[in-house]
Each structure stands twice: as C-alpha cells, then as structure tokens.
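U., I forgot to send this yesterday:
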Amino acid sequence: MLYQIEFTERAATQRDALSEDRRKLLERGLLKLAEDPFTPVSRAVSGEDIRLVSVAPGLTVDYMVHRAFLILVSVAILDQSLIEDE
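Result:
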C-alpha cells in the first residue's frame, strides 16, 4: 500500500525553504517512506502518534500516519553549523 503524503503548513514551509537538491533528496526519501511508514529505521516519539526518521543524509522528518495518509509535521536539516563563519 502506498500512503498519500500530506504536509502541515509548517512542514510545507520548511520543505519550500530547502535548496532544490535537498528538496529532491527529501522527495526521494518520502516516496520510500510512503511505501512503509513503520519502517524499522523510524522510531516513535511522543507516544505512538508521531514518528521520526532520517529520509536522506542530513534530513529528518516528523510524521503521523492516519488511515491512508502520511502527514508530515516537520522537516529538519541536521548538518548545518550552529554558528556560521563570520
């Protein structure tokens, strides 16, 4: 079963802020996730309602599964420096 991917407003804003190459990586990872949102590489956070998974190098998503929908709650970039070069 292929789950339909939906974005919250917050997640859509985060997705849209990604560079084109990062957005393509995100899309590829999400297509794999839509095949099996309970993949063993994901983990439950906040009880069983929200799950977390790295969908591509440096990109993680928080998501919920509801019926046939995979609802993206947030998208995070993990490999940016906390303090940029000045």
